[in-house]
Specification:
alpha/beta, NAD(P)-bd_dom_sf, binds 1,4-dihydronicotinamide adenine dinucleotide, nucleotide binding, globular, 2 domains, 9-stranded mixed sheet, about 375 residues, single chain, 5-stranded parallel sheet
Length: about 375
């Protein structure tokens, strides 16, 4: 089977997330890294792409040059990953979708709800995939949690508790460091800092696992480092369309916490607990029973979990493999479309533009709520509200 061609915008030398995408896209041999506009400095981007094996004529100086260069090629890229700073996602994603490319966009997909709705409309009108990289949903045991909820192991879900709390911006003396400061500056970060950066991962995870969307929320935002305009800590209560109650804590001042993404789901018949820093174990407690450890790779897991598991039980899998599962889903769906067949249903789990839009509605809803002493607000995008 020939490889699909993959291209990347952003993710240049020294970037945080670029290497994880390249590892993820390359893992299964489904994608060839064929083109890139990797850096905001054109010559640096061209040189870095070539150092990674991209042919000189496809190592572009900027994304517009890449769009023009790729659209006329017979072997144009099948998928473009957008891994640039947040404020550029909308413009770049929109342009590639409109030119007929499938896109995997980093989160947050857009800065506003209106832009999010526009991306959903364009993806629908063009029939192109617009995936959003909520990459932590790619973990095998996260997919197993979803399968357990869907097949009724927990009974009706009563409560979901999500956290994404780290301590890497806790040093008030370092708050003026330019690498940190922009994140809390509304001119560069938008309306929200910590909730838009990390909280939306946890909120999306809650929806992904429970198969319920967020309906309404109430938020309390705090700037624990006093010089900050935007929040570095948030507590968000939410209600889900299927009736589940949600609690979410996100923070960047939680000293001692590293990545700090956890999810707990409590139903009528049992509870689940998963921590991203130990992603190969899932803790399940049936009502009236003992805690059981479910190991990634063990026999008898769901097809969704099996599909997302690569190495034998007992050998740790981590974040680049979770990203690889998003790429594996996309490769399967793109290939199926080329071959005119129905994709494997277990691959139909990648997060998409609708999820990116829901996150943006939640961010703007949380900002509005926090500004009104935690008043409850509708967290659904206007286009998904009943007339
Ligand atoms: P970064 O600042 O470390 O790297 C950004 C890269 O994009 C740099 O190489 C820069 O030169 C390049 N760039 C900037 N503007 C560009 C343009 N117009 N055209 C081409 N390249 C351009 O940023 P980081 O931390 O890698 O974040 C990038 C995106 O990934 C952000 O939207 C962030 O929210 C997201 N992210 C997602 C994570 C996830 O778990 N899904 C984790 C970390 C970041």
């Amino acid at each position: 089977m020939s490889k699909l061609n993959w291209g990347m915008v952003g993710g240049g030398a020294g970037s945080q997330i670029g290497p994880a995408h390249r590892l993820g896209a390359g893992l299964d041999g489904a994608f060839a890294f064929a083109a890139g506009a990797l850096d905001h400095v054109p010559d640096a981007g061209r040189a870095y792409a070539q150092s990674l094996g991209v042919a000189p004529d496809r190592a572009y100086g900027d994304w517009r040059e890449m769009l023009e260069g790729e659209r006329v090629r017979d072997d144009r890229v099948d998928l473009v990953t957008v891994a640039t700073p947040n404020a550029t996602h909308y413009e770049i994603t929109k342009a590639f979708l409109e030119a007929g490319f499938h896109v995997l966009c980093e989160k947050p997909m857009t800065m506003t709800v209106e832009e999010g709705e526009e991306i959903v409309r364009i993806a629908s009108a063009t029939g192109r995939i617009c995936a959003v990289n909520y990459g932590y949903t790619g973990y095998s045991l996260v997919r197993h949690m979803r399968a357990m909820v869907a097949r009724g192991d927990l009974g009706r879900v009563r409560l979901v508790v999500a956290e994404f709390a780290h301590g890497h911006h806790a040093n008030a003396a370092d708050a003026d460091n330019p690498r940190v400061r922009w994140r809390y500056d509304p001119a560069q970060a938008g309306v929200s800092a910590q909730f838009a950066d990390c909280g939306i991962h946890a909120l999306h995870m809650a929806s992904f696992v429970t198969c319920q969307e967020v309906a309404s929320l109430s938020a309390d935002f705090a700037s624990c480092v006093e010089s900050r305009t935007l929040e570095d800590d948030a507590m968000v209560n939410f209600r889900m369309e299927g009736g589940a109650v949600g609690r979410l804590w996100t923070s960047s001042v939680a000293i001692g916490r590293q990545h700090g993404l956890t999810l707990q789901v409590f139903g009528e018949a049992g509870g689940l607990r998963w921590t991203q820093e130990q992603p190969n174990q899932l803790y399940w407690t049936p009502l009236g029973g003992r805690v059981q450890t479910i190991e990634r790779g063990e026999a008898g897991l769901s097809p969704e979990a099996d599909r997302a598991s690569r190495v034998t039980i007992g050998h740790a899998e981590g974040m680049p493999l979770a990203f690889a599962n998003i790429y594996a889903d996309l490769a399967e769906v793109i290939r199926a479309a080329k071959e005119g067949r129905v994709p494997d249903p277990a691959a139909d789990l990648y997060p998409r533009a609708e999820d990116g839009l829901r996150s943006m509605a939640a961010v703007h809803g949380a900002v509005a709520s926090a500004g009104r002493q935690g008043a409850w607000v509708d967290a659904r995008p206007p286009m998904f509200r009943a007339p």
